Amino acid sequence: MTFRKALESEVAEIWTILQYAIERRKQDGSKQWQDGYPNPDTIRHDIAKDWAYVLADEKGILAYGAVIFEADPDYATITGKWITERDYVVVHRVAAAPRAKGMGIATQLFQYIETLAKSRNIYSIKVDTNFDNMAMLRILEKLGYKYCGDVIIRDSARIAFEKCLD
């Protein structure tokens, strides 16, 4: 497997993966991603900003995530408290391909992101998810992310987590 930046030529493949994730959230009864976001323009924006990363094998992309090495303005206000106030990486828009089901691919994606963050001397990862995204909540718990409080993302409350890597 390879963890790398996504390419503009992969927008359609990434969009297919995100559509699968959007449908999964809907089937699970989650309200997350049921409002036209994310979409292909979101992916193009992620690629243009150098935020788009994939985990791929010889058959194609297994997982996608936006990995952002700059402060997220939505995280400046939290009902609660972040563990640290230092530099951090933000992870958004995590989705796994249908063929990756049962492989722990999202967990592996986060592990690669943690390694990337440490290689850039960043020792904090912050992430948010919807209160009803049970799949992501399980992953975050398993990987040792700590609940910090609530943030507002696109006019909707999200639960926020942080993991210290040192």
Describe this structure in words.
InterPro entries: Acyl_CoA_acyltransferase, GNAT_dom. This is GNAT family N-acetyltransferase. With 166 residues, the protein is of the alpha+beta class. The protein has a single domain, classed as 3-Layer(aba) Sandwich (Aminopeptidase). Helices cover 30% and strands 31% of the residues. The protein has an eight-stranded mixed β-sheet. Helix 3 links the parallel strand 5 and strand 6. The longest helix is centred in the N-terminal third of the chain and has 17 residues. It is globular. The mean pLDDT is 96.
Summarize the structure.
The chain is an alpha+beta fold. The chain is 30% helix and 31% strand. It has an 8-stranded mixed sheet with strand order 1-2-3-5-6-8-7-4.
Give me the CATH architecture, please: 3-Layer(aba) Sandwich
Q: For the record, what is the CATH homologous superfamily label?
A: Gcn5-related N-acetyltransferase (GNAT)
Can you tell me the residue ranges where pLDDT is under 50 for at least 5 consecutive residues?
none
CATH topology (level 3) name: Aminopeptidase
**Number of domain modules:** 1
Number of helices: 4
Estimate the helix proportion, in percent: 25-40%
The SS-based structural class is: alpha+beta
Rg, alpha carbons: 15 Å
Distance between the termini: 25 Å
Q: Biggest sheet: strands, sense, closure?
A: 8 strands, mixed
Beta-strand content estimate: 25-35%
Q: Mean pLDDT, nearest integer?
A: 96
- Written as H for each helix and E for each strand, in order along the chain, the element string is EHHEEEEHEHEE
Domain N-acetyltransferase: 1-166
InterPro entries: Acyl_CoA_acyltransferase, GNAT_dom
Protein name: GNAT family N-acetyltransferase
